[in-house]
TrEMBL record:
Keyword hit for Hydrolase: yes
Protein name: DEAD/DEAH box helicase family protein
InterPro entries: Helicase/UvrB_N, Helicase_ATP-bd, Helicase_C-like, Helicase_Restrict-Modif_Enz, P-loop_NTPase
Annotated transmembrane regions: none
Gene3D superfamilies in the record: P-loop containing nucleotide triphosphate hydrolases
SUPFAM superfamilies according to UniProt: P-loop containing nucleoside triphosphate hydrolases
Pfam families attached to this UniProt entry: Helicase_C (PF00271), ResIII (PF04851)
Length: 736
């Protein structure tokens, strides 16, 4: 039983109540105790602090209509708040924000709306920001606060707000004042000060920050929706500006495609099994609370649709090139798609390949639309020409004729205010019952009756599978099927694709979820170092040779430290320190750098640099070097490795170019191997040097030259002091 701490005896008396813990089937009494504060917390003047006890009481007395996992997530946020874990001074590279992972369709909205009430007495400012990554997601947040018209004015339609609908607020509780901030409406200037909640997208908020249009001291809490985007540099600039705000991150996506870490979130090292059976270690965020779609399927009944897989077949893997069909093996097609992007953007999966899939998809959709049920399907195309071809093919079906929408990057999916385009609006209204897209239906798309997914595309990552299949699993009214063959069932989503596209394995992974084992306590030294969170405990001043960090464990003379710093706009810079001595716990003597670096900046041990035995013989065949993560890499090798990575390949232990599953490219034949090499060479020409200050053509002398430079500055400073105080120095002996 957790201890919940309150900040005053009055607050403790107010909430000293019996709590029925339905999750464990027991009745317990909360033990409360006053907590000392290190800094002022908002009391009384905030709308949320005034009404927080209503929400907390409804929650702990089990008087809401929430699912158990929603209550558990909200209680976790409350627990972190009363313990002071979300205070802004607790922000570190490895913590300070609440991170909740809640799957698609699992009730994240009510958690977002209730969070300000739970933390109302535990934050410093009276205002809350609901921060979305784009205009579409911002509009989605506003849609969950519906209004109704009375005369010429609009008023909150409280009965439809999740807060009232699920019993967190009683009907007599006044709603908060909400302002949607967007450039299209310049009334935001007077709305900002009046509002309790500011709903805004990232790009517009960063503009307001640059113009100092919002008082950062008034904002006590930022709740970030779809928070896996928050690794972007602009988010860090926003968080730095609102330095008195507590942070709560909500998302249904565990991993970013680029692997960039989220700020102020704890990470751990986990073991996962790759497609080829190899066990690998990777870094993963550690949620404070987690409820995935796989957890939702385990409930009885599930709170989302069940999902089934129904592949179609045809003779051969056929692609249309220059108006003629050409047959490939699946492997040859995927390799060419990965190595020749120009070809991939223009090729079309042949009609004979697509038609069996469309036949099957239309058959499933006809079953689901019986008895006038408005089920719809989403078709993902390979590229824009393929999407346009599929649109024509769909007109051959009586069910789809004139009822198919098409969106891609050359069309507007949403307008500048995040409202759906005409195509999407018709899909939402059931005027279009099929929607063809090219990587355009993602976050912000919300149509529960989208129940059939038709991926006629290349899909190789679990992230893409989650994005595509997650669009069709929101629950609708009706029963849950007893088996996966009942395609008529209201709450059975169906994926229809071609078996040759190899999507079956991804589908099974999507159903099973990620299986990862935390191995923090059993890591080898280099793995442990990768997962260890180090940060500066004091500001580093340019030219100084002392660096203060939270832990010197496993560090020794000669090690390299990489330190990350973010500027006012959130852009990342890296600095590299060579450890010369360990002065004591938390203090290192280092080779200095010429930049100021603030405390709390992340630091990570890099691989040691071995002294080169190579002698400099002149400028013949000179090679440039990059100093990356503590290692010197030739510019040629860097460009090659980066090009290989961008093309979706890797360099194996024998130096061979291979697919991620370990199969060597040259084993697919000389023609495809040569094609792959040419594609990599073209990509290598596009590679830019990541940071010009890291370039060196004399790695064996770089450290020595840096030390000489600082020694000259020190000598100059000493000589200057001696010259300017020569008379005083000469007079000192007479005083002794």
């Amino acid at each position: 039983m957790p201890i919940i701490k309150f900040h005053s005896r009055a607050e403790a008396r107010q909430l000293f109540i019996m709590v029925k813990l339905s999750a464990v089937g027991a009745t317990s009494l909360l033990w409360v105790q006053p907590q000392k504060r290190s800094s002022p917390i908002m009391t009384g003047s905030s709308y949320f602090s005034q009404h927080s006890s209503i929400v907390i009481k409804s929650l702990v007395e089990d008087k809401t209509k929430l699912y158990p996992h929603q209550k558990e997530g909200l209680l976790k946020i409350l627990d972190m708040g009363v313990k002071g874990e979300l205070l802004p001074e607790r922000r570190r590279g490895d913590g300070g924000a609440a991170f909740l992972l809640v799957g698609v369709g699992c009730g994240k909205t009510v958690i977002l709306q209730a969070t300000p009430y739970l933390l109302g007495s535990h934050v410093r400012g009276r205002q809350v920001i609901f921060l979305s990554d784009n205009c579409t997601l911002r509009q989605r947040v506003m849609d969950d606060f519906p209004t109704k018209k009375a005369g010429k004015q609009y008023f909150p339609d409280q009965g439809k707000w999740p807060l009232y609908k699920y019993g967190l607020l009683n009907p007599g509780t006044p709603p908060p004042q909400i302002a949607e901030l967007k450039p299209e409406i310049n009334t935001y200037k007077f709305s900002i000060d009046k509002a309790d909640i500011l709903v805004v997208n990232r790009q517009f908020l960063i503009n307001l920050v640059k113009n100092v249009a919002i008082d950062p001291q008034k904002v006590g809490l930022i709740v970030v929706d779809e928070a896996h985007h928050s690794a972007a540099a602009t988010y860090r600039a926003i968080f730095n500006y609102f330095n008195q705000a507590s942070l709560v991150f909500l998302t249904g996506t565990r991993h970013r495609g680029d692997g960039e870490p989220l700020p102020f979130v704890k990470y751990e090292i986990v073991e996962e099994e790759e497609e080829n059976g190899r066990i690998v270690t990777k870094r993963a965020p550690r949620p404070n609370f987690e409820f995935t779609i796989q957890d939702a399927w385990k409930l009885d009944p599930p709170i989302i649709k069940k999902i089934a897989f129904s592949p179609a077949r045809s003779e051969g893997f056929k692609v249309e090139e220059d108006g003629e069909e050409r047959e490939y093996t699946a492997q040859d097609f995927f390799i060419k798609a990965e190595t020749d992007r120009q070809w991939f953007r223009q090729c079309i999966l042949a009609n004979s390949f697509c038609e069996p899939v469309l036949d099957r998809a239309v058959e499933v959709l006809e079953l689901k639309r019986q008895e006038k049920r408005p089920h719809r399907m989403i078709i993902r195309a390979l590229n824009i020409p393929h999407a346009e071809r599929l649109h024509k093919l769909c007109q051959n079906y009586d069910l789809l004729k004139g009822r198919v929408g098409l969106i891609h990057s050359q069309m507007d999916e949403y307008d500048s205010e995040g409202r759906p385009s005409d195509v999407l609006e018709k899909f939402y209204k059931d005027e279009y019952i099929a929607l063809i897209h090219v990587s355009m239906v993602g976050e912000g798309f919300n149509e529960p009756y989208a129940s059939v997914s038709v991926p006629l595309c290349v899909m190789r990552s679990i992230q893409k599978a989650e994005q595509e299949f997650g669009r069709i699993i929101r629950k609708v009214e009706g029963g849950i099927p007893e088996n996966d063959a009942d395609f008529k069932a209201e709450n059975l989503a169906v994926v229809v694709t071609h078996e040759a596209l190899g999507i079956a394995e991804l589908f099974e992974k999507f159903k099973a979820g990620e299986e990862a084992t935390a191995i923090e306590d059993d890591l080898e030294e280099e793995q442990a170092e990768f997962g260890r969170s180090r940060f500066l405990t004091d500001d580093y001043h340019a030219g100084h040779n002392l660096l203060h960090i939270n832990s010197t464990d496993r560090l020794e003379k000669g090690d390299q430290l990489t330190v990350k710093k973010y500027d006012s706009e959130g852009k990342e810079k890296r600095y590299y320190f060579s450890v010369e001595e360990i002065i004591g716990e938390g203090t290192l003597q280092v080779a200095p750098v010429e930049e100021n670096i603030p405390k709390d900046s992340l630091a990570r041990k890099s691989s040691n640099i071995e002294n080169s035995s190579t002698q400099f013989k002149g400028h013949v065949g000179l090679e440039w070097y990059l100093f990356i993560d503590g290692e010197y890499v030739t510019l040629t090798d860097y460009c090659k490795k980066e090009a290989v990575r961008r093309k979706g390949f890797k360099i194996d232990e024998n130096g061979e170019i291979a697919r991620l599953d370990g199969k060597k490219i040259k084993d697919f034949g000389p023609e495809l191997y040569q094609l792959a090499l040419e594609g990599i060479a073209r990509e290598a020409e596009k590679i830019e040097i990541p940071y010009t200050k890291l370039v060196s053509c004399r790695p064996d002398r770089e450290k020595e030259d840096l030390q000489k430079s600082y020694l000259k500055k020190i000598n100059k400073a000493i000589n200057g002091f001696l010259s300017s105080h020569a008379k005083l120095i000469a007079y000192l002996p007479s005083l002794m």
